Fold:
Amino acid sequence: MFHRPHEAKNSRMLDQPTQLNASLSILVVDDNRFSSAMIKRALKGTPYQDIRYTSSAQETLGAINDRPVDILIADWLMPEMDGLELAEKVRAIDLESDRFTYIILITAKDGNSALNEAFDKGVDDFINKDQMNEQLLPRIRAADRVTQLYSGLLKKHDSLKKKLQALEKTNAIDALTGLGNKRYALQKIKETIRYCQHRDGVIQLVMIEIHPWEPIKKQYPPAILQGLIRSVGMKLHAISRPLDILCRIDTNQFILITHHKNLEECKHRSFRRFKDDLTGVRIKTPVGSVSIDVAMAICAAEVTRHQASSAELLINHCLKTLEKAKLSGRIEAASSLVPIQNSDSASDPKPASSPPPQANANFSR
Structure:
């Protein structure tokens, strides 16, 4: 049978015998000192040196919070808090600290019902009091192997999580629609502003939001909502010009970034088709057709060598205009040009070597 290389490697890792871990930490909870004395004798001569003892469940929780432990050995029956309740609290600590503690209970109980109850509470293994001398060391060796493997998995998980976080910081694609995300939109707005600063021109933003969204969100499950968002993104992409930049910047918000030579070209009538094509449109889903509407806002800023607007300022201005569009039901354009800032106060940007995507909206009324 053919095995993929990574599968063979993982198989070898699981098949290889795990060496005893001398740094394995063991915590023994014993309220009458009887079990601890037996455990000391059983572990004498083994490589395990990090062994601590506590006399109550509360003391144990404090010891684990002070320094985590690999293996916890406790009596099932203890005053104040029994072994099952202690196991639940230890599992809660594990969950918060992203760790794993192997829990062994010492008990005289028999029967499947008692064992099943303990397993449900997070207990990993049992040692019968009558067979303590024979069972303790083999059980700890098994626990040693499990904790090593589990700790290795936790380390890999942590490493993958850090890599994912690093990727997310640089990721510019919206996974659901395949369009640019908010990071990409900010990047392209800044690039367009730099381009305009060296050649003069106007940057125009068209913000489109599926509205009202809350009633749709309450009525349909996440899978249907994702399908709606994806369909709207496809429709917007289909009616936008190839050189326009379309991004999804929030759950139900899209933005189109365009560039014009002058303000006379910035006519919001050119974008009416966006609203007409998406107002009242029925999108097919597995649960039937869903009708949607959209709100639209447009804002523009004239950019020269001596005055420019920041990307964040442009987006915030467009968001405020979008709120007016939600109330009026019309396409709302900024009542005045977006406030500008003196470009001399910022670092002199490098000239754009090539023009940004053309900005005349291709969504006409």
Remarks:
- The mean pLDDT is 81.
- The longest helix spans residues 132-170.
- The domain at 5-168 is CATH 3.40.50.2300 (Rossmann fold).
- The CA atoms of residues 233 and 255 lie 10 Å apart.
